[in-house]
Amino acid sequence: MPQFSPQFSPQFSIVTPVYRSEESLVALYERIQKTMDEAVTPNFELIMVNDASPGRDWEIIRTLADRDARVKGINLSRNFGQYYAITAGLDQAHGEWIIILDCDLQDQPEEIPQLFAKAQEGYDIVLAQRVERQDNWFKRFCSKSFYNVFSYLTNTKQDPSTAQFGIYHRKVVNTLIEMRERLRFLPAFIQWVGFRSTAIPVAHAARDHSPSSY
Fold first, then answer.
1. Residue 74 CB coordination number (10 Å)
2. Cα dist. 74→6, 18, 115, 125, 197 in Å?
3. Sheet harboring 12-18: ordered strands across?
4. pLDDT in tens, 72-129
């Protein structure tokens, strides 16, 4: 297992918010580690932000960090919500490229190489477009309804098939972390900051464990 000093400068930072996902965290780490080491580069850091989960999530994160120096854990003092947890991770990310993905394995780590390959064509943001979402009908209905209403109220075009799963250049993240609005909705922020962006279709996995609390 690669070991790095605390001063190492990663090429990639992978940020994931964690809440009630103790069943998936080890598999998430193993799949990220395998994908990055074999298909991208071992020069990465994985930042797992525990959003005050009531389960064993933080214990598991600490165990993974002890196993692999590339794993960093952030333990929030209370449950702030997904976008605040992501922001906390972005604040500590040092990579030239930053990847954001959920921890429940519906966002599949194996999609990271193709996201990066597309970014190499000159894009600063490449979002994962979940063409066939593997959520139940009620979640899909609520998500689509929310995005339609949000698009109408903000006079913007929001796509319910994309969220925050994607890869972002450092200059994009530097701009995002300067935005300290109290009400945070990352997909809208991403659209607002500009930069050259695109989306590519990815496979969206079904959730294997308990229903998403987020």
1. 19
2. 15, 10, 25, 25, 29
3. 71-75, 44-50, 12-18, 97-100, 166-169, 125-130, 197-202
4. 999 999 999 998 999 999 999 999 999 999 999 999 999 999 999 999 999 999 999 9
pLDDT digit string (tens) for 31-61? 999 999 999 999 999 999 999 999 999 999 9
Query: Does residue 83 lie in a domain region?
Result: yes
Specify the number of domains making up the chain. 1
Q: How far apart are alpha carbons 43 and 206 in whole angstroms?
A: 29
Range of the domain at 22: 12-202
Residue 183 belongs to some domain of the structure: yes
Report yes or no on 86 lying in a domain.
yes
Query: What CATH code is carried by the domain that includes residue 172?
Result: 3.90.550.10
Query: What distance in Å separates the CA atoms of residue 194 and residue 151, rounded to the nearest whole number?
Result: 17
**112, part of any domain:** yes
pLDDT value, residue 182:
64
Put simply, whether the predicted model's pTM sits higher than 0.70 gets the answer yes
Token reading at 124: 């600063």
